[in-house]
Amino acid sequence: MFEPHERARAFAALGAVLSAGSVSGPLLGGLLTEYNLAGLGWRAIFLINVPVGVVTFWLARRVVPGTRSPHRPRLDLVGALLVGLIASGVMYPLVQGREDGWPGWMFAVMAGAVLAVPGFAAHQRWRHRLDGSALVPPALFAHRSFVAGLVVALLVFSGVTSFFLMLTYHLQSGLGWPPLHVALVTLAWPVGIIATTRFALRRTGRGLVGAGAAVMAAGVLLMIISVTVLGAELSWPHVVAAELVIGLGMGLCVPILAAVALGEVPTGDAGAGSGVVNTAIQLGTALGIAVVGMIFFSSAGGGFGAATATTLWCNAAFFCAAALATPLLPGRGVREPDQAVR
């Protein structure tokens, strides 16, 4: 759909939309819960996805141009099944392990999932040699910068979503804030994103990704200090200040992350590469929530505030690790056409 020289702007737009969606979700959820739409209570936050899905489907049919590969692709069912089993084998024990007392079979399932990764890689290489229909083209991982981009995306989104989930839980369940109040203070986040996104789009590069991740870590540290020092006296200005800083970092990092990660991927593999990056984002989101939830409930015996601060340190570690990994990304966002195609 996009020429090589247009990819940076296209992926930047995608990153901005992902950021906007992440922000609008909690706000809309707070409004629906506060005003008890049609007497549904919290159930409305799930039912709202039905009209959203219908509108999205209609817009896709009307706006997105149709594309057709000159070679009919074959679906890699075995590869898809292996990915699903590996992800489930890691995620389920992390989510349910503490509640079920960490039975031995859960550790066996996690070990099996990890051991299945080389098998999945071998299957993908075989499938690629057979007819080029691998779910994840092995050639993508020949680019060190792409692998680094996956790691950075995984870490950033592990930290982002789990941070706001934990903060919302702390404010509502720990401090008794109403849902609408929580949703309104969350608006500081998009303000920060908007303030820095345009600058990031003009100067796409790994330096901004690293700087953005570092700024996000600083925002989390500010929140840790506020939660630890103020305790039950925590008020909206302190939350707004931390969220504003995190938003500033996110505006520098997220809108350009996909473009930077795919900067050295040949044009023919760009579609598959984009899909793998988006998968890493979704896996990071789920993994972050699972890990942070496990840490919080394991440390809740020391008090609500102490447990929240402990989990926020995990979020800060995610962002710091992402910043440390950015030197492995390509120096600039996307190569020109004659450079990208080998």
TrEMBL record:
Topology versus the membrane: Multi-pass membrane protein
PROSITE patterns per record: MFS
Gene Ontology MF term list: transmembrane transporter activity
Keywords in alphabetical order: Membrane, Transmembrane, Transmembrane helix
Keyword Membrane: yes
Domain of life of the organism encoding this protein: Bacteria
Residue ranges of domain Major facilitator superfamily (MFS) profile in the record: 1-334
Signal peptide, first to last residue: none
Subcellular location: Cell membrane
Pfam families named among the record's database cross-references: MFS_1 (PF07690)
InterPro entries, per database record: MFS (IPR011701), MFS_dom (IPR020846), MFS_trans_sf (IPR036259)
Primary localization: membrane
A GO CC annotation given for this chain: plasma membrane
Family annotation (SUPFAM superfamilies): MFS general substrate transporter
Transmembrane segments: 40-60, 75-95, 101-121, 146-169, 181-201, 208-232, 244-263, 275-297, 303-325
Protein name stated in the entry: MFS transporter
Organism: Nonomuraea diastatica
Lineage: Bacteria, Bacillati, Actinomycetota, Actinomycetes, Streptosporangiales
